[in-house]
Amino acid sequence: MSIRKTAARVAGVGAVATAALGLFSTGAANADTFVPLPGGEITQTLSDGTVVTVKLVGESANISPSMGATPVHRNAWVSASAQVHISGDTTATGGKIFPGYVVGCQVTIDGGNVNGGATGGASWDSQGNVTPQGGVNSGANLTLGPGQAKSFYVLDLEQPDDYGHEAHKTRNVFKGTDGSVTWSDETIGLNGCAGYAQARSFVSVEVETDNVISWLTLWGQPFSLG
């Protein structure tokens, strides 16, 4: 199952999906586990005085027994809201928000970088900033072996390109000083991992001014997929 968002679901400065957080259960033997997560906040002042604040709020994960009912299958539903605010003496007129998750099988994703490498997703610099790469798919049906990690984006926005052909974007563009992306009960489906599995959210933001183009990334707290 892939995660898809259409351009019609982009409203105002955010791609908004109604929040639905809670504990779901199908019985004591296979009850879901609701995991509240702390989110986070970072603020960075760019070289020209632009101040960028990125927040991750209302973050949670709901871990459930897989429909596959085997040790190599995991299922989770994740929710959060990424919020960006631009201030200071700046010529910035908006930015781009790339929300996503890193999923690892028997690999540590505690630090900003992902030890053991990450494939099919994004590249990390020494400060833990994520740079989206062309060809990265959204959607969270992942197959991982021991020591592997992959990343995916929450958004898959359909829109015509300059020639009228269908194009897919993994970011939300906002104008002005504030932007957001909110997602609810997006699926992480993991197959093939017989060992310990983790996931971790990230929000990468691009801001462009007359003098500088800057990337910054906020990482969420890692959580277990079982």
TrEMBL record:
Keywords: Signal. Gene3D superfamilies: Porin MspA (Ig-like beta-sandwich domain) (2.60.40.1650). The keyword Signal applies. InterPro entries: Porin_fam_mycobact-type. The keyword Signal applies. Residues 1-31 form the signal peptide. This is Porin. It comes from Nocardia aurantiaca. The lineage of its organism: Bacteria, Bacillati, Actinomycetota, Actinomycetes, Mycobacteriales.
